[in-house]
């Protein structure tokens, strides 16, 4: 097997367009399922905010999955290059034999940088906060581990154990760190389980597209399977880019839904207390009232002065 085997000459522009359409339809179906689930889910949060947040968390799952998969794919390719050049005494061979762990650490850092560039600049996700992004990124490592375990089970030629150990170490470090409290651990677990449905959707979509790509001959079976899965991730990422910037989902999720589904704050609070009916007219400002108050105050002061004067005269 040579390096040219990573490129498929039969995967031309027409085939890439067909595969992209399949990826676009797959991502769109997942997005509409998330919107439908947000519609039927009860909660105080508005449908607009709830649907937008969940859709962007799914986008983050795809972005993080592609970023993490880039590290695993880079490791496989570099390891393959080493197997082809082993014993040649080249600079790359020497570095891979002596600095392999540092190279893997550098690749992990680069994948984190790629992830940040994607979800902040190229596909800016503004409806999810940093805590939600961190939870989804951690889950994407579990997503890649599941894929690597499956590739080992079907007999892929590459060895993924070092990559999986790095990912497991990062996941454990996310759950347990030196100054973590039990409440932090419970919060991390709760965030993890809150995104499990997104993990299932991502795995189903990736598996279906990869299966279609290999059967159609777009992805090479003689190649390492992880390269085909990474190609699939790239097409999914392109579909997310178009969906996000075209704002197609807002044809189904409108800002008007916020006003329809969100209760009025004053009205709800006072209904719970049951002792006051809110009336906006109570807070209307009448400038004449201000002068009436001053006149009443002046009259009271004159009455008090007359009473004190009468008392001094013995009346």
Question: Helix and strand layout, with pairings?
Answer:
Elements lengths: L12 H28 L6 H39 L5 H8 L1 H23 L7 H24 L7 H15 L6 H13 L1 H21 L8 H22 L9 H6 L3 H9 L13 H26 L3
Helix pairs in contact: 1-2, 1-8, 1-9, 2-4, 2-5, 2-9, 5-6, 5-8, 8-9
Notes on the protein architecture:
With 315 residues, the chain is mainly α. Helix content is 74%, strand content 0%. The protein is built from twelve helices and no strands. α1 packs antiparallel against α8.
Question: What does this entry show, briefly?
Answer:
Helix content is 74%, strand content 0%.
Helical proportion? over 70%
Please state the average pLDDT score.
Answer: 78
- Rounded to the nearest angstrom, the radius of gyration is 31 Å
Termini separation comes to: 122 Å
H/E topology pattern: HHHHHHHHHHHH
Q: Per the principal axes of the C-alpha atoms, what is the gross shape?
A: globular
Number of strands: 0
> Which structural category do the helix and sheet elements fall into?
mainly alpha
How many strands, which pairing sense, and closed or not: the largest β-sheet?
none
Strand content: under 5%
Extract low-pLDDT stretches. Answer: 258-276, 288-295
Q: Tell me the number of helical segments per DSSP (H or I, 4 or more residues long).
A: 12
- The quaternary structure here is single chain
